[in-house]
Amino acid sequence: MENKLELLILWPFLGFLISLLLPPNNEKLISRYSFFMVGIHFFATMVMIVLWIYHGSPSVDIPELALYDGEDITFNINFFFDKVTAVYALIGSMLTFLVTTYSRLYLHRESGYKRFFVTILLFYAGYILAVFAGNLETLFIGWEIIGLTSFLLIAFYRERYLPVKNAYKVFSIYRIGDVGLILAMWAIHHLWHDGMTFMKLSNYELVHEHLEGQSLFAIFISCMILLAASVKSAQFPFSSWLPRAMEGPTPSSAIFYGSLSVHLGAFLLLRTMPIWENQILIKVLIIAGGVITTVIGSMTARVQSSIKSQIAYGSVSQIGLIFIEIALGFENIALVHFAGNAFLRTYQLLVSPSAVSYMIREQFYNFEPKIEIIETGVAKKLEYSLYLLSIKEWNMDLLLDKLIWSPLKNMGKALSFINHHNFLYITIPALIVAAGLSFIKGSISPTILGYLPEIFAFVGLLLVFRAYASRKHIILSWVMVVMNHFWVLLAISFNDSLTTEGFLYYITGVVSAGILGLVALMSIRKQEKNVNLNSFQGHGFEHPKLALAFLIACLGLAGFPITSTFIGEDILFSHIKYDQVFLAFFASLGFVISGISLIRMYARIFLGPHVKKYHAVAFKSS
Predict the structure, then answer these.
(1) How many CA atoms lie within 13 A of 181 on its CB side?
(2) Is the CB of residue 232 less than 8 Å from the CB of residue 285?
(3) Cα–Cα distance measured from residue 271 to residue 184, given in angstroms and rounded to the nearest whole number
(4) Residue 237: cis peptide before it, omega within 30 degrees of 0
(5) What is the dihedral of CA 407, 409, 414, 419, to 10 degrees?
């Protein structure tokens, strides 16, 4: 059975890789190939689940290859199959097959026809990897693939302003959730000191033994998991990103934000339930967040003028109820609820174009003006107040801007003295001094030595803040993001010596991605004189190869699982001690903000309406 499960996991990745070789203009071949690959996987998933039930529904743990095996950490690809995996895999394969079939005609004659199906196949591969994951490291790989494909599909109409802007906004909020997952993995590593699998988590005695006497650490892990789950499932106060994501094509909206991707937060809570199920505080937070999300989502859905936004907030409110069910221990009810909500929202989104045209006709032929009645009672005033709050989506965008994005921009603007004139004179000597201190750390006072890692990581974080706020000098922004990696490496080198293999894992990915991105930026600046980050410039239309090269470089530098940087980051975090919370926070925040900065650079330079006036300018929204 294990061999069959391995084939079931590898099949979507094989489908994605072969799809890259298909001719871009042959719609019939592309659609039939996608239909065949997803259809075979759907049929195989049903057969596998029937066989699994026939054998007594056992929990199956499949240890796979070790991508890195060091003295302190082993990075394993591990798979796990139980009833949660069975439900998510079956619903996912069925709905992906449905959406793939629907898209064959829906996207007819779209210029990005092949790009859409290739991205859908990559998303499906990431989704299957996430739901079959046997540990958090494997789940995080699928998690990142889903985040990337989400960005690419929201920005599918990349010549328009709003799809690109909203894609960047959604990706930025996703990265907040990544902070939680990265810190949770770091804390779990220090708590268990070896690879913690979901199979081991099902052992109550083992989990209780490790959590006993570590209540604060357990609360920290649970809070980080809750943060990641809340962001991914658009729970309050992160709910506003979901309707923004509807700028993509209707089929991708259905499969991402109606059914599969948006329910991964609930999946994460189900997988990690043994960690937080005995913590009253965490359960109260989950229930409170679910109640607030359900109430706000229901009211906001009723006043939306866009049918996609109505469905989005309706889905959010139901996921809030699923969170409550999970917190109360009703795991089976939550799985049934997930299946029902996923099917309903997919159906609603796929028929939404027809529903809109029908309602427009009905309003045209059967319009009845509403009789105005002025009422001043307390109940009516409350109703109108709630109506206005719902129209404004409870100001969740404003709240996130005030709490997160504005402080980051202000921090970057405060560092404006770091510019292209003095950057080399400030950072290079500082980096040399830091490297020298690392070599003579044995002769430094222990008191001073205890503060140096946090200081160095904070310096790298400041460079990332500056890159995030920069608008003019794209090459300088790129170099500052690269420099952050070196500062973090120096910071962690003060704890204990990295092995040569671990050092090479990390530095190879950073250097190769950094050089590729620098070459791409210099090439685009040479061909297009006025390239900056003030607005979307759409140069990817005329320079698609440079756009692809720069995107690959951004993903490599951001730690996406295509280069060794991804494993290197995990290796570095394993060398952060359990009492160095600030160092872990600065390093993880630096990685996350650098990822946002990199995607911002890619979007501003290569996506959006073209700056050249001889190109047609598309409507802002799709």
Answers:
(1) 28
(2) no
(3) 13
(4) yes
(5) 160
Copy the structure tokens of residue 212. 């006993």
Distance between CA atoms of residues 419 and 416, nearest Å: 6
**3-state DSSP assignment of residue 135:** strand
Q: Name the burial class of residue 367, with classes exposed (0-12), middle (13-18) and buried (19+) by CB atoms within 10 angstroms of its CB.
A: exposed
Beta-strand runs (E) in 301-346: none
Q: For the segment 38-73, what is each residue's pLDDT rounded down to a tens digit?
A: 999 999 999 989 988 888 888 888 876 766 666 666
Q: Hunting for tokens 């109260």 — which residue is that?
A: 284
534 with 471: CB under 8 angstroms? yes
Which amino acid, one-letter code, is at 227?
A: L
Got the DSSP string for 184-250?
HHHHHHHHHSS--BHHHHT-HHHHHHHHTT-HHHHHHHHHHHHHHHHHHTT-TTSTTHHHHGGGS-H
- Judged by DSSP in three states, 61 sits in strand
Q: What is the pTM of this model?
A: 0.88
> Is the torsion defined by CA of 435, 440, 446, 448 positive or negative?
negative
How many alpha carbons fall within 13 Å on the CB side of residue 401?
Answer: 7
Rounded distance between C-alpha atoms, residue 389 and residue 383, angstroms: 10
What residues contact residue 349 under an 8 Å CB cut-off, 6+ apart? 250, 253, 254, 258, 308, 311
Tens-digit pLDDT profile for residues 304-352: 877 888 888 888 999 999 999 999 989 999 999 999 999 988 888 888 7
189-239 per-position pLDDT tens digit = 877 766 678 888 777 777 777 677 677 778 888 899 999 999 998 888 888
The tokens for 338 are 């997930």
Tokens of 511: 């250097």
Decide: residue 156, CB within 10 A, 0-12 exposed, 13-18 middle, 19+ buried. buried
**490 burial class (0-12, 13-18, 19+ CB within 10 angstroms)?**
buried
Check: CB of residue 466 under 8 Å from CB of residue 415.
yes
End-to-end CA distance of the chain: 46
